[in-house]
Every structure is written in structure tokens, then in C-alpha cells.
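User: Structure please.
Assistant: Input sequence and predicted structure:
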Amino acid sequence: MEDCCHNHRKCCARNTGVGLPARLIDVGDQAITPDVRLHISRPDEAGEYLALSYCWGGEQSVVTTQNNLNSMTQRVTLSSLPRTLQDAIRVTRNMGQRYLWVDALCIVQDSEDDKGREIQGMGSIYKNASLTISAAAASAVSEGFLGRQPKAMPSCKWQLDIPSVGSHTIFISTQPRMFLGYEPNHPLDRRGWALQESLLSHRLLVFSEKEPLWYCQAVRLKSAKDGYLEYWATGNPRNNWVFIDPLRSRSGMQPRNRHGLWTRIVENVTNRLLSDKEDRLNAVAGIAAELQRRWGGKYLFGHWGEGFVPLLLWHGKSPSTEEKSGRAPTWSWGSVNYPVKWEGWLRIKAKAKFTGGNCGHPRVVLTCRTRTLEEVTGLGSRFPPSCFWDHADHTSLQPPGAVLILLGARPGPSRRPEMRELNGIIGIPTESSGGFKRAGIFRMWCSPKEANQILWENVRPKQVVLE
């Protein structure tokens, strides 16, 4: 920690003088009392604190509620807390720090208003922490992360005596793919909430399955005690996405690059587990708030106003049997519960603007060209649209009145440079409002001449409302 603060000043400046979160655990002085208490921060109070990233693994035995909030500020018995929280308090004390932020205790769990405010501020909480303790190897809060007995790495060991140098030990791994480095297997890396906690933290002390690991803006992932293992962390998205220089200003990143950054974040988080599916959008709210502060612009239901049209082309690996959730409009990936992905940027052929809608969900007005799915399939096998439906029922029974809404195009592959891939979404008309609900996406391959003269001949752009 001291090495990072002194030698990585350009990218890992010490977080001194930052405003404290609304509540923190005051770990106090163990020599006086082993117990802790909840600290209520003054609006102007500043200082240093640590944060904890961990798996709940079910219901917590101790949480802060509206009924026990006052008593928690007086005393919290250390032995009443689950092991992971006890271990985090021990680490905080041993590092000479006074304050620790833990969601279960620092957020009033039965207050929707308090949870909403704190979730929106979680980006700042983890970003401003001097260090985030990552209980990566524990799958539940009851397990703890200190004192674990790691399994030995499969390796051969030699004692080597070198004249005038001394005796040294050499380990040669017998595990496949170890030439790339050891990839940790962390239950925490499979949890949805943990993504933004690791992404937004300036520094992570990761209690891995074999040893503590260190991560900061200058160090990718390495042993915190100069161990012999080299680590391969491709599965962990800790690559300075949020803090690299191109992200620091609105002018520093083009819409295409922002699109690539954001889709990688969403693809990662939607492949993770969430105890409550309704938290799908909340799990990236902290990241979105930090990016909005840097980028500016409009952010709505997991989509950005700038570069909005290409973000509509999300899709799953296979259709779902679940109906879309009412937590988000149908055009948002937040309305589904399965992993989503994108195919990349495209040349945009549609324009979008937002208007008011129902249930607090904005409607999107697209200026674009459309044709019914029936019209296009009626052209024969020459232009078969590949449809990727959101719901499994539509794969065998196409919904009546389905419309292909053209959004853009991509160039053909190197072996067919004369071709174009047309991309868009499939809309189903709503009888009540005259708008459309998103039902999937489509792709079509054709030449530019065929696209203009056959597929879209005499089809003028018009306004289409997405709900």
C-alpha cells in the first residue's frame, strides 16, 4: 500500500481528504474494545476508509434496519458478525485504518429510499476508498477469508545450490496452460454486484484461493507477498476501463470506442449471477454514474443517448422462455434476464430521440426505414432475413404484423467486400398506443445495389415509436 501511494502517484494518488460515505463501520481500537459501531458521517466530514467486496451467499445474519439503526451507532458485537465481516475488520485494524464500508451494515436494508441513494453513490464509494478488500475466494459471508488452507499447486520442486550465490528453490508447474499464468477461480468474480466494485476501485487487496493478490492502476494482478506464481487474469475485467486517460474527458473517446467499452461491461455483468433479477440495472448503476460524470450526456435504462442506435442491437445466445420484465422498456437489455451481447459498431442509418412514456419508461422515436417481415420473406430465398427473437415462442410462430426496422449496416467480410450486412430490430405493433415493442433483431446480406433497388426501393424514412 505504501509502495503504491509513493511510487504510483500519477495513476494511484492517495485518496486523502475525500468526503466520507453516509455511514461507515468504526473499527475503533481493539486494545480498548473488540467490538465496533456504526459511524454516521457529517455532511462535510472527510478522511480515509476501506471498502469490502464479498459474496452474501444468502441472507445476512446482521444487517442495519430502521429499527436497529440507533443501537448500531452505539455498539455492534464483533462476535455477532459473520466471519467475512470479522476478517475484514481485522484487516482494517491491522492496516492502521479506522473506517470500513460494508453494504449490509452501511445501507439501511429495509428502506427503499436509502438503498436507492446508496446504490447510485456506490461508484463514488468504491472509487474513493483507499483500498478495497476483496473476499474473492469465499462463496458466502459465513466462510471468512483469513486462515484458509490453500491447495498446493501441481508442480515439481528442486533445491538448487549455486556457488557463490547460495541455495535456491525452483518450482516447475505440471499443470496445463500454466505457461500463460495461473487463472484464479473466484466465486466473487461470478457475482453481478462485484463487477462495479472491482472496476471502480483504485486498489484491490484480493484474498484469493492460494495467497493474497494486489491490484492497482499500475499493477495488473500479482502476489502481494512476492510469491512465485504469475497470474493470468483474462476472466477478471480489471483493466483500468474507468480510469485510463481517454475516459477522463468528454472529448477523449469517440462514440464507437465508448460503445465498445460499455458493451463489454454489460456483456460481463449479464453473464454473472444476481440473487435478485430486479437488480440487473442496479448492478451497473455505479459504473454508469461515474461514466456519466466523465462523459456527460443522457443515460437511460442501460443505454446512452450518444451512440444509442447501435446499442439497440443486443441479443442473447438463444431465445428465452421468460416474458420481459416491466423494470425497463422492451428496447432495453435491462428488460430480460439472460446474458446479452453485441456484434460491434455499424454505419448508422437511423436517428433517435426520446419522449415521455408510460410507467416512467421513455419512448424512443426512430426516424428510419421499415418493411414488414412478410414483405421481405415474400421476395423469396434471395434475401432471407436471419431473425434472432427475444422470446422462444416467436422462433416457430412469428408474431403477426412484425416489422423490420432498419438501423444500419456493416461491411462484408474480406472474402466478399462487395456485400453488406443490414442490421435492425424486429418490432411488434401495440394496438393501444400505435407504437412497437421490440421482439428481436435481424440481419440480411446483400449488395448495396440490391439493398437500394429491391429491398428498400420507394421506402422513405418515417417515424417509429419504440416502447
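DSSP finds 13 helices and 25 strands in the chain.
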